[in-house]
Amino acid sequence: MTAAAPRLVVGLGNPGSEYTQTRHNAGFWFCERLADQLGTRFAHESRFHGLVANAREAGVWLLMPQTFMNRSGQAIGALARFYRIQPAEILVVHDELDIPPGQLRLKFGGGLGGHNGLKDTSAHLGTNDYWRLRIGIGHPGDRNEVVNFVLKPARCEEQALIDEAIDRALLAWPKIAAGDWNTATQRLNARPAAPKPPKAPKAPRAPDNSKDESTP
Question: Is 139 annotated as catalytic?
């Protein structure tokens, strides 16, 4: 499906150095790397309650709300209203508990999965009909541990998988920027191939001790 190209990409997370490396900031990680890829930098914009970058050549705004996760919509709504950006032209990038590290899901609309950042975004936009890129962070296995889990750094092996997933998302950015959501969705929602098990080492050949009968 070729639809409206995104005019606003939002990464969800929490402001402050104490949250920089936590799982809940996966959306920030993506936006920071996309800004580098597009050759733009963030600056604080108080009227938009966040860090904002304008990638003029790409025709897209980047936003990292500085209002804390459960008030993300305040920043998104302010910028979208000011520049008359429609919800269908917005891509929100966020962490996702129900997807394992290393996997992604790109989707339009639908439920909010209990994500507080999405809840506030939908409240301020007045709709669920915007694009989301969900970055898998895994689940602690106990819902009572979710808050503690998302506000802690990922384990080293998990972080490596998350970083690889963000790499794949950035490779798909040209398709997203062109509004070719169908191709981008097919690429990003496909599960990465499992690594092949290492080949078993070949057994050493037994030495040939047979004596050549023609040898004296």
Answer: no
Residues with Cβ < 8 Å from 136, sequence gap 6 or more?
A: 96, 98, 99, 100, 101, 102, 103, 104, 105, 162, 165
Annotated binding-site residue? 19: yes
CATH architecture of 1-65+88-108+131-153+175-193: 3-Layer(aba) Sandwich (3.40)
What is the reported pTM? 0.86
Question: Residue 114 — pLDDT band, cuts 50, 70, 90?
Answer: confident
CB 74 within 8 A of CB 99: no
pLDDT value of residue 216: 46
Q: Within a 10 A sphere around the Cβ of 168, how many other Cβ atoms? A: 15
Mean local confidence (pLDDT), 87-107: 96
Q: Is 70 annotated as a binding residue?
A: yes
Listed in order, strand segments (DSSP E) in the chain are 8-11, 43-45, 50-55, 60-65, 90-96, 104-108, 131-136
Given the residues 24, 94, 115, 124, the one annotated as active site: 24
